[in-house]
Design a protein that fits this description.
It contains 7 helices and 9 strands, in the order E-H-E-E-E-H-E-E-H-E-H-E-H-H-E-H. It is of the alpha/beta class and 203 residues long. It has a 5-stranded parallel β-sheet, sandwiched between helices. Helix 1 crosses helix 7. The longest helix is centred in the last third of the chain and has 19 residues. Bound molecules: adenosine-5'-triphosphate. Adenosine-5'-triphosphate binds next to helix 1, helix 5 and helix 7.
Amino acid sequence: MSSAKDVLRPLVISGPSGVGKSTLLQRLFAQYPDKFGFSVSHTTRPPRPGETEGKQYYFVSRDKFQELLKQGAFIEHAEFSGNFYATSFNAVREVSQAGRRCILDIEAQGVRQIKQTNLDPVYLFISPPTLAALRARLQTRGTETEASTSKRLATALKEIEYAKEGAHNVVIVNDDLERACDLLKRVALGEEIASDTLPPLDD
Ligand SMILES: Nc1ncnc2c1ncn2[C@@H]1O[C@H](COP(=O)(O)OP(=O)(O)OP(=O)(O)O)[C@@H](O)[C@H]1O
């Protein structure tokens, strides 16, 4: 059995939209329902019907958000379509206090911000095998219009550029889903695996 020395560090997962992060994480959580947890983020967007304070999000006013930001409560924060979102140090701590490894699904800007903190997570990048495969997945998922596919692809290129700088500890290429699931499982359980080589992604 290889060492599991990383199992206490948070695991930050990033990768372009459509690469399969949600699919992989759903499978991991299904296989290990008690081992991992997501931190609850803060947001300034109003709750949707059925959403509960402290479950999907901590819902805060813009003023409260700014106050917490000033206090240094957040590991990373971002604005999406007019609303602010953030991950707090406390939210990550709550997951580990519940005896679970905290998994954070974070985009490149957030990863950059986390690197400025003392969180010391493992950074995992999920890569598509090719850009053509990524494009096809976004299209077949059926959740995107042509315009939003282009927008997601443009953002995807930024994620990939960042990965090319060597920003992550481990790369998993999501080519064969079973293989990628197995590698994610091993990383999540704290094993040090041989990283996949980042594909050229210039097609
Ligand atoms: N290894 C794979 N081979 C082929 N298709 C895959 C593979 N992994 C995931 N997919 C498919 O690709 C599509 C995108 O996957 P998913 O929604 O999990 O991506 P995501 O990275 O979570 O995207 P977002 O960041 O936009 O939420 C889905 O239709 C999924 O079924």
